[in-house]
Design goal:
Blueprint: H1 2-51, E1 56-63, E2 66-73, E3 81-85, H2 96-104, E4 108-112, E5 124-125, H3 131-153, E6 158-163, H4 165-176, E7 182-186, E8 201-206, H5 210-222, E9 233-234, E10 243-248, H6 255-258, H7 260-274, H8 285-303, H9 319-339, H10 348-365, H11 371-376, H12 382-403, H13 413-435, H14 441-462, H15 464-467, H16 470-495, H17 498-516, E11 520-521
Parallel strand pairs: 3-4, 3-6, 5-11, 6-7, 7-8, 8-10
Antiparallel strand pairs: 1-2, 2-4, 9-10
């Protein structure tokens, strides 16, 4: 009887083990199938992006020192020229979906990077809020581009489109260039529009831009339109004085540039002015870019399941010490740097950012027990570091550079990148040590980020005229933390490679700041 009970017990244990291994095998199969599916989705999205421009040719050239991208339909005489100007902190990539749609309609599209933006090798200077400052320099640059291509091609029809900051630039430029048949201001806030200058103006805003929509109607009121309404035409086409304000459904400040509705509205506007009917071929570049990006993002999350788990010593912090040091690191650097900064680069915002990252890192260093740095050196794995660098800066970077905003290092931005490394690497390694704390690491890491953002905000308030660009750096940092930081933390929690992850994050953050922040000089 006893042997029968023992045998039954053993059989139950074996059955449980078999069930466990079966469940584990089934789970691994699901992960593998999901990874394969995400790879196929990413490849399909890449094909759709390439397919959207199958009939088009894009050529890069320079006018003076301004980088220009021309997009046009193959083997077809262009019906006219459309100039495209990006907004503040943007680049030609933001205007790509519109450029592709208008090129498909038969127009030569001309995109260019403003001074200090994208791949332009020269910084901009002056206040962007005053006509005499940066605005005039951007207007002069735009006029140079317009004159060059109108003289070169002598088109029967030409138009200029500008987004956000450029909405004001293109209205001013078009007023000085009567040969332009129309100007389109997207997400507009200009005060330069007049009753009859420039010719035939369309103002488009996203549905979710209530302030700009109200501002646009105010613009019409200021030129003499009584009780203006969105979607109505004002003025006479025979006088080239048409004025219209409208909105794009389900679009925000950035989404309006990627909306198919925007593309259709622009082609319809040209058809109305030209009294013609161009073929409309819209594109979903924005959607397929998002699918490509996030299919890779979720693929990496699933792949972390296959990493061998590695356990090392954890970083143990005293909470009182953590909070006291972080408060000092939040408050002290803005006050010190208000009076003195060490010069790494010639661009005030970049230079201040580098100084602040270095100073915060030095202060935070004292929140860590010295013994933890010995443990840190054991947590480096070169293949993992190389993988994260390629993933963040090359793979994701190439997608962002092509379809969102400039993200690849070129020219003047290379020395800025190496200077940013001095501050970003120690800062990110320290942040990763917080995340890898023995308990509540997620809370500590996010508290650290909050203190960092408060510190940067304080610097802006102390010197807003010189450092307002750091406000955009804060947005970049938050985006960086949500995407790159999330992935790297998942890997670090599984494989416990604090130094590898922190170093990769530091390089990626320096890469982000050096490529995406506009270059500004006094």
């Amino acid at each position: 009887m006893g042997n029968a009970v023992l045998l039954d017990t053993r059989l139950r244990i074996l059955a449980r083990k078999d069930k466990f291994y079966l469940l584990k095998s089934s789970k691994n199969t699901i992960y593998k199938v999901s990874c394969l599916l995400l790879i196929l989705i990413a490849l399909f999205a890449f094909w759709k992006l390439d397919f959207a421009e199958r009939n088009l040719t894009s050529v890069k050239e320079f006018v003076n020192k301004t980088p220009v991208t021309l997009t046009f339909k193959d083997n077809l005489k262009t019906k006219g020229i459309v100039f495209l100007a990006h907004g503040f902190a943007g680049s030609t990539s933001f205007m790509r979906p519109i450029a592709v749609a208008l090129a498909e309609a038969g127009y030569l599209t001309v995109r260019f990077d403003f001074l200090g933006h994208g791949r332009h090798p020269l910084p901009y200077s002056g206040d962007i809020t005053t006509i005499e400052g940066a605005t005039q320099k951007f207007v002069n640059q735009t006029n140079e581009i317009i004159s060059h291509y109108l003289l070169k091609h002598s088109p029967s029809f030409s138009m200029i489109i500008g987004h956000s900051m450029a909405s004001d630039i293109i209205i001013r430029s078009a007023s000085l260039n009567p040969s332009l048949n129309s100007a389109v201001a997207i997400s507009a806030y200009t005060d330069a529009l007049k009753a009859k200058e420039p010719k035939n103006v369309l103002i488009l805003n996203g549905q979710w831009e209530p302030q700009l929509r109200s501002k646009s109607l105010e613009i019409l009121q200021n030129i003499g339109v009584d009780n203006p309404k969105e979607g109505r035409l004002y003025g006479a086409l025979d006088d080239n004085a048409i004025r219209k304000v409208d909105f794009i459904k389900n679009a925000d400040h950035v989404g309006v540039l990627y909306s198919v509705r925007t593309q259709r509205e622009l082609v319809d506007w040209i058809n109305f002015l030209e009294k013609d009917k161009q073929i409309f071929i819209g594109n979903n570049i924005g959607i397929w870019t998002g699918i490509l990006f996030f299919s890779i993002f979720f693929l990496i999350i699933l792949l972390t399941k296959f990493l061998p788990k590695k356990t090392l010593g954890k970083y143990q912090f005293g909470y009182m010490r953590f909070f006291s040091i972080n408060i000092i690191a939040c408050v002290l650097p803005p006050l010190i740097l208000y009076n003195f900064t060490f010069k790494f680069v010639n661009f005030p915002a970049h230079n201040h950012l580098i100084n602040q990252m270095i100073l915060i890192s030095i202060i935070l260093f004292f929140s860590l027990p010295p013994t933890q740095f010995k443990e840190l050196t054991k947590s480096f794995n070169f293949p993992l570091f190389a993988f994260l660098f390629i993933l963040f800066c090359i793979l994701f970077g190439s997608i962002l550079d092509a379809y969102v905003s400039s993200f690849l290092l070129t020219g003047t931005r290379v020395p800025v990148f190496f200077s940013c490394l001095i501050g970003s690497i120690p800062l990110m390694v320290l942040m990763q040590m917080y995340y890898d704390n023995y308990s509540n690491g997620w809370i500590l890491g996010n508290i650290f980020k909050l203190f960092l953002i408060i510190s940067l905000s304080a610097s802006i308030l102390l010197n807003i005229s010189q450092l307002f660009i750091i406000g955009y750096a804060i947005i970049l940092f938050l985006t960086f933390a949500l995407i790159f930081g999330f992935l790297s933390n998942m890997i670090s929690r599984k494989y416990n490679n604090t130094l590898s992850v922190g170093l990769a994050n530091g390089i990626a953050l320096a890469w982000t700041f050096s490529t995406a922040l506009p270059m500004y000089v006094n």
